[in-house]
Fold each of these.
Amino acid sequence: MNVKFENVSKVQGLLSVSLEKADYQENVDKALKEAKKKAQMPGFRPGMVPMSLIQKMYGKSVKADEINRILQEKVFSYIKENKIDMLGEPLPNDEKEAGMNIDDDSMTFWFDIALAPQFEVNIGKDDAITYYEIKVTDEMIDNQVKAYTRQYGEYRQVDAYADGDVVKGLLVELDSDGSPKENGIVVEGATVMPQFIKDEAEKTLFNGAVKGGKVVFNPAKAYQGNEIEISSLLNRKKEEVAGVNSDFSLEIQDITRFVEAELNQELFDHVFGSGAVDSESSFRAKVGESVAAGFVPDSDYRFLMDARSYLMEKTGKLEFADDLLKRIMRANRRDDDKDNIDETFDRSKEELTWHLIQEKLVEKYSIKVEDDDVKAMAREATRAQFAQYGMMNLPDDLLENYSKEMLKKRETVDGLVNRAIGAKLTAALKNDVKLKIKKVSVDEFNKLFETSSTDNK
């Protein structure tokens, strides 16, 4: 067996593997003997089929399988041992292999290999990249404080109705004279939220309502004939409430009101932990810090986008074996997606360029992702999900359980690994380059994504 490699150009190589009969025949013979033991053919006892027939039936396929196994092993081991910086995978060179026959004892197989372009990434304190810090406004703090007071609020029973309360009681359909309708609709424990009544005249009927009192209203008018809302109130199917235009009497048994939490030590401890803050001013300051911290991932994401643009421009256009890369892409895509390669090729090369630059940076900064990094990223992702709902102070066991569930899915783990690499790369770049800090509003920050241009001037 003989394996050779030659450079066709700076970005393309040609690898050949020459095989002699001695390289594969022993394993082929073993495989045929195994096939003989299992072969069943009319007129022969099991295992007694003549080898000549076995050879005729299975010889070519067994030989092809063994040669393919040897090629896979030798090609990739040669690439690894000789540290060939390959893009994609080796592709057979059909032109070179034209005329080759599987019946030949000696064969040479040829593979085209796309080589990664050679380049350096130089970056340091002489390089300045804009870092956008989002301003935290009083309105943001007010909104977050409001979210906390609502989150830790509670429902209380009250005696008199006010806007926003939930009213519950016995709902009885009335006849035209105001008396309970015979065989009419009766709903025990009916729940009404007057604030969502669409007809203003019907809504005002609940003004001044008290526990133990009654309110007479018309559901058909109140909900302007919306059968879904009417059927939900009357606990009936939609077709059963069609045409129901009666007044109903609601005997009020309960009035429930949601009361927001007060800005006191109990709330402070709920949000940030016992004793972390001890006054409203320090609470607001801490809320401001948490809001600012919540913007950091967005700022880091934008920074990495800008760093990417900056580094790609500084690195310049890289040379690739375009035709071979397109072949590799076609070999790895579905049939219905192969025709788009020419249209998307420039974008694919751009992504490949950044991937290669990123690999250089990972090596430069000695970035490694360990299991603990992935677990930490899972916990951070879990914490961020709960933070969207204002839950900042999660118990450790809850955080641990949710993050463990995330790690059970392979695709999720792959995403977390990429996020961990991105986070470490962002931190390394922020520490290495000169940051041009620019404070912007949320609207200004969002507008940065409306254009692909990057302001690093």
Amino acid sequence: MKNNLKATLLSAFALPGLGQLYKGERIKGVILIALVNVFLLCALFFVMQGAGKLLVSVQLAGYSLPQAMDELQRQSPAVRWVLGGFFLLWIYSVADALLLKDKNSL
């Protein structure tokens, strides 16, 4: 049970997928780490794309910051989906690390 706790903490607080690597599930761990990076890079892309629009709208249209933030949220709903996918993947990784049987103890 001690290994399950270490694996869960690694996946929960360090990086989703590290718990699986710690427990010996190399393929699953690498896939989870790759997916986490894809989700975070997509979210960063959408945020940076929206930040450019935000700066332009504030300077050209004379929006106040709250108005510009509302406009940004309306223009980029994909960020919510991407971050939602990331959090679902994170929850799966933590639960899997907690419930995964240790290959070394078999």
